[in-house]
Model the fold of this input.
Amino acid sequence: MVQKPIYLDNHATTQCDPRVVAAMLPYFSETFGNAASTSHRFGWEAQDAVDQAREQVAALINTDPRNVVFTSGATEASNLAIKGLIQPLLRKSGSPPPNIITNKAEHRATLDPIKKMQRTDAAVTILPVDESGRVTPEQVADVLCDETSLVSIMLANNEIGTINPIVEIAELCRSRNVPLHCDAVQALGRLPIDFEELGADLVSLSAHKVYGPKGIGALIVRRGNRRARPEPLLDGGGHENGLRSGTLPVPSIVGFGAACQIAGDVLQVESDNVSSLRDVLWSRLSSELDGLQVNGHPTEKLPGNLNVSFEGIDGDVLMNSLKEIAVSSGSACTSAEPEPSHVLRAIGRSDQLTRASLRFGIGRFNTPEEIDYAADYVVETVNRLRNST
Ligand SMILES: Cc1ncc(COP(=O)(O)O)c(C=O)c1O
Done:
């Protein structure tokens, strides 16, 4: 028996894995010390738990645990990377304004702080993306200049799953001594990430996309690169190597660590599993319905992602008719007035097709029965709506 609604929105957030919850629980009431209390056992135990979690997060992306700066999530991590690097440069009198390079398909956690820097006089280049949502190293090379102080390109897109060629972009940035920030939120636990091979200097991560708790994430900061060390946004106790003051949320950090440990253990099997469920869903939809367009790259994409536009249908009616599955629509509800997705617009979809798009995000807890049910349900609903117009 399939339980409804079926959760197929694993790019928005993921269910906290019960093993993660179990790992967190003792840190609310039994081991509740402040990790910064150095004079007693309560503090030492909390600090030990934070150290272990830091190692677990670092291990998943093959980096030195000292590079991990815990934040409240990826929004804060990206704000820290962007504002923390650019604001000090804006204050320097007599030098030309710093230049930032990014692209149209980034998450708002990257685009909005960059736009804010633009309003305070940074020069910003927002590159277009190709029809699959990708940015090429050549595009970046064409606009890199002596004033470029930061390049920010995501590893995998949260709407269409497209994976960018970060290794090549990072090589280019390194050859010009320009720091590269990379939002790797959607890739964490879904693709193997090796921080050293990736070559980015600053990487944003979030626990709640990898079956961990909400409200905790990290900025990975490459040690030894002075140009890539952000100025802290918060002043206070100097936690996290001076980069993020504030008492550490030990239970959340423990949960993030446990989530990363589990993700590392199951990554390959889970990726194969969700990508085969995604392929089943797509083969059912594409063989039983016509007028569909897949959004994103045909091969360079996240395993559980399927983003489809439905021709000849009204997007709002489609969304309102799909109560038994939890998916995202092509309208981003980030404001009072839902706006057509800026990512689907960036890859050239019309507003009408953008609104009539669904993002399926398949994850750890989805079953083949759920995918079968969802396929039947979408086919039947789309046919009904098309026949009624
Ligand atoms: C690609 C991407 N970047 C950043 C974020 C923001 O992460 P957080 O919710 O941890 O602030 C999200 C989550 O929606 C995301 O998908």
